[in-house]
Amino acid sequence: MTSIRSSLVATALLAALAGGAFAQAPAAPPSGQGQPGAHRGHRDPAQMQERFQRRMADLKQKLQLTPGQEGAWTEFTTQLQPQPRGPRMDRDAWARMTTPERIDRMRSLRAERMAQMDQRAEATKSFYATLTPEQKKTFDELGSRGMRRGGDHGQGHRHHAG
Fold first, then answer.
1. From residue 15, how far is each of 2, 12, 98 by CA, in Å?
2. Is residue 62 domain-resident?
């Protein structure tokens, strides 16, 4: 009786663990359809750049920078340029990876994102240090509404209406 029970428990455990291995991922939607934000061009590098330029022009106008702050502004906007996402990993390549390889790949991607976020954070802090108290107040107000981001490129989830 004990060996039957042990066999059943072991079989159930193996089935639960192996279930993910047999699950098939859905086919990729054609040409960006079905991807969040795809209908608004959120992944299109040209549109990302256009949105970034508009936001930076708006920010610059509202901050009313002095000629002495132009160098810091240029460095700030250069560091915040939106970076297009690299190519997605092929589903077949992902499926061929072992679990430890997938974990390592996800850690590597996370480290890259964190390094980019750290770079933007330092650029923002450096620029912020050059602002007058009134400009800092304006920057903080705009930042609380999402203007401190350097464009829509994957830093968190932002939901838009429409």
1. 20, 5, 18
2. yes
Q: Which domain holds residue 145?
A: 48-153
Residues of the chain with pLDDT > 70, as a percent, come to 62
Number of compact structural domains in the chain: 1
Residue in 73, 47, 69 with CA at minimum distance from that of residue 153: 47
How many other β-carbons are positioned within 10 Å of the β-carbon of residue 3? 7
Condensed to tens digits (0 to 9), the pLDDT of residues 82-102 reads 776 777 778 898 899 999 999
Q: Is residue 52 part of a domain?
A: yes
How far apart, in whole angstroms, are the C-alpha atoms of residue 120 and residue 148? 10
Q: Is residue 20 one of the residues assigned to a domain?
A: no
Contact 148, 158 (CB under 8 A): no
Q: Does residue 123 form part of some domain?
A: yes
